[in-house]
Design goal:
The protein is α/β, with parallel strands linked by helices and 418 residues long. It is built from 15 helices and 14 strands. Strands 4-10-9-8-7-5-6 form a seven-stranded mixed beta sheet, with helices on both faces. The protein has a four-stranded mixed beta sheet with strand order 1-2-3-12. The structure holds pyridoxal-5'-phosphate.
């Protein structure tokens, strides 16, 4: 019989295989100091484009005070136990009410984490005969949820409304044949890698042809899109068509936790059936109080979103003017598409970090096809025009070096912490 552990250490996986040269630099880097547009990496100050601190709330003085005061008052223990048993509080319920109101829904339920929360919510919603129709580029948490559910699922080509309709018709035919079950469509408000908004309005319009319920993961739209920051549905004028609205607190809210909002009856059903919350300790009080403060700032300080967009547009327009391909983004997420191998990409990142003092993330094979490189820049309300200009200059110069073959190396540079 094989030893499971033996197999694991023979193959550390697509990224793990590079760990001996990459750990601490290309993978698991440590950003230090106050969260902001500049942080320290290996002792050097760098302009950071990797954090989803969209509105700059991570270090907002009112947020820091609320977090600190709540930690002093409650500690991390309170409330003890799962919400259903002993871990409920007025403040948890207040946050749920305020979140629901913010995204124009009747009620909402808190979750300790986005990833496990949405997985467990999908598990709670979908029965044996229900059929899920979902976008091919949905986040891993949705894909993993679909591995758990017992019913059928049909994937549609990314943001392809025609294909979505085709898959809906297949789903409808299956439900008709089973004489049982319904259809749930799952997509995202903003796709976090490419920055394109899900075509929510057009997908929702398909309800006229095939009846279904629509669940939207709006992790990147919440707080960044829509007149009031209520997200991609508000931006596209179809918030009412979203039956279940989900967002994590890990991005605009610069915190931990998540929520799902929708009709009171359905949220109540989820509340009594979501295993990740029923069988887990509730969100600690400092998170709840800290999230209430963040939500208050989302409501009361529209200038945070305005600054974010001012910076995002300056960055995106600057890149376009310089001839960069930033794809189809219509959110603040800013991808830059280039061509090159994994080794070249890492050598280029090293140059950008070491010589231009810019820290950003890259995506390479096997996450995307071989020979492609995506830089993913996340602007925030805190970035300055000077930082944007320096970044544009750095990308122009390093792209020219990439095109001239200056980064052709045989191996990933060995930058691991020894
Ligand atoms: C689209 C999307 N959904 C869900 C999650 C998971 O949220 P969390 O970090 O709260 O687990 C993320 C990442 O944070 C995300 O980008």
């Amino acid at each position: 019989m094989a030893d499971i552990f033996e197999r694991l250490i023979k193959n550390y996986g697509p990224i793990g295989q590079h760990r001996e040269r990459a750990h601490g630099y290309f993978a698991f880097p440590k950003l230090e100091g106050e969260v902001g547009s500049k942080m320290k990496f290996r002792g050097q100050e760098m302009i950071v484009w990797s954090l989803n601190n969209y509105l700059g709330l991570a270090n907002h003085p009112e947020v820091r005070k609320a977090d600190a005061d709540a930690s002093a008052q409650y500690g991390l223990a309170l409330p003890m136990g799962a919400r259903m048993m002993s871990g409920n509080s007025d403040l948890h319920e207040q946050l749920e009410r305020e979140l629901a109101e913010f995204v124009h829904k009747e009620d909402s339920i808190l979750m300790n984490y986005g990833y496990q929360g949405i997985m467990s919510a999908i598990d709670a919603i979908c029965g044996r005969h229900d059929v899920v129709v979902y976008d091919a580029e949905c986040h891993a948490c949705i894909i993993d949820a679909l591995r758990m559910i017992p019913g059928h699922r049909f994937v549609f080509k990314h943001n392809d409304v025609e294909d979505c309709e085709k898959q809906l018709l297949r789903a409808q035919a299956l439900v008709d044949k089973q004489q049982s079950g319904g259809v749930l469509v799952i997509t995202e408000g903003v796709f976090g890698m490419a920055g394109d908004q899900g075509r929510l309005k057009e997908i929702a319009a398909l309800k006229k042809k095939v009846p279904f319920r629509l669940l939207v993961d709006d992790a990147h739209g919440f707080g960044t899109l829509g007149k009031t920051g209520a997200g991609a549905g508000e931006e596209q004028g179809c918030q009412d068509e979203i039956d279940l609205y989900f967002s994590t607190f890990a991005k605009s809210m610069a915190s931990i936790g998540a929520f799902m909002a929708g009709p009171r009856t359905i949220i109540d059903y989820i509340r009594y059936n979501i295993r990740s919350q029923i069988f887990a300790k509730s969100l600690p009080m400092p998170y709840v109080v800290g999230n209430l403060k963040r939500l208050e700032l989302l409501r009361s300080k529209p200038e945070l979103k305005d600054n974010l967009w001012k910076n995002a547009l300056a960055l995106q327009n600057g890149l376009k003017e310089k001839g960069f391909d930033i794809g189809k983004t219509d959110s603040v997420v800013t991808p830059i598409y280039m061509k090159g191998g994994v080794e070249e990409a890492t050598a280029m990142v090293m140059d950008i970090r070491e010589n231009y003092k810019i820290f950003c993330s890259i995506v390479v094979y096997p996450v995307i096809p071989k020979g492609h490189i995506i830089y993913r820049l996340i602007p925030t309300a805190l970035h300055t025009q000077e930082e944007i200009d320096l970044t544009l200059k750095a990308f122009s110069e390093t792209k020219a070096k990439l095109d001239a073959g200056a980064y052709k190396v045989a191996e990933i540079p060995d930058m691991a912490n020894k």
